[in-house]
Design a protein that fits this description.
The complex is a heterodimer of chains A (about 150) and B (about 80). Chain A is α+β, with helices and mostly antiparallel strands and about 150 residues long. In chain A, about 35% of the residues lie in helices and about 35% in strands. Helix content of chain B is about 20%, strand content about 25%. The chains are: A alpha+beta (about 150), B alpha+beta (about 80). Chains A and B meet through helix 3 and strand 9 of A and loops of B.
Chain lengths: ~150, ~80
């Protein structure tokens, strides 16, 4: 289940929903990402995320399919914010369910690496000195690339 | 009419996130489109950058690709994830 939301969401309620749906699982892992109050460009008052529908959703669906191929997941869930966010607000929620913890941890980690590096989003930070569009960092690519080594 | 979308910093470079525009008959492919629309907006080459990818009707284009007056064409700077 994939949701792009232009309004704030409650990660606790999302986890409760997911747990109710993940019947028969022995392990559930969830990750919530929050908007940081500071960034490379200094203090951040507003973080803005742009998506391009349906390309953005299509890419996330493909990543979820790949995670479900690599690991025996009973269920998975992705919620991602778009639009304007304030520091401390949830920006992303990922949950995975499996029979055992390892697959759930690794599946969630894999999905987060996709979402942080390859997902079709454009990100703008607005602080006291103005707005800056953020381009990818090399270390983000390194996080994503490490999954290539686990293939085969 | 073609629908042109400019994502991220490209909306700053063109002054608009989207526009519906009649493409001149001479604009037959992505290469000609980039040159023409960059000049139209005075975007100083922002729309010509190699790292800017084009999507035609929501699919990443392998350039140069043909464009038509009925297409939705998106100019996409490198995606940075969420």
């Amino acid at each position: 289940m994939i949701t792009l939301s232009d309004t704030s969401f409650d990660p606790g309620a999302a986890l409760a929903d997911f747990t109710a749906r993940a019947e028969g699982a022995g392990a559930i892992v969830s990750f919530t990402g929050l908007v940081r109050p500071d960034a490379r460009t200094g203090a951040v008052n507003t973080l803005t995320l742009q998506a391009y529908s349906p390309m953005t959703e299509r890419g996330i669906k493909a990543a979820v399919s790949e995670a479900e191929t690599r690991w025996p997941l009973n269920a998975s869930m992705v919620i991602h914010r778009v639009g304007d966010m304030a520091p401390g607000e949830p920006i992303v929620f990922v949950a995975t369910a499996s029979a055992h913890r390892r697959a759930a941890f690794e599946g969630a980690d894999f999905l987060m690496d996709y979402l942080k590096t390859e997902a079709v989003f454009w990100k703008k930070e607005t602080g006291p000195t103005g707005s800056t569009w953020i381009e990818p960092r090399d270390e983000d690519y390194a996080d994503s690339a490490r999954w290539a080594d686990t293939q085969g | 009419m073609a629908r042109l979308l400019y994502f991220g910093r490209l909306a700053d470079a063109t002054g608009t996130p989207l526009e519906t525009i009649d493409l001149p008959a001479s604009i037959a492919d992505t290469s000609a489109l980039r040159q023409w629309i960059d000049a139209e907006h005075g975007s100083s080459g922002a729309l010509l950058e190699n790292t800017v990818r084009l999507a035609i009707n929501n699919e990443i284009a392998s350039e140069p690709a043909p464009v038509s007056n009925a297409d939705e064409i998106a100019f996409m700077p490198p995606v940075g994830g969420g």
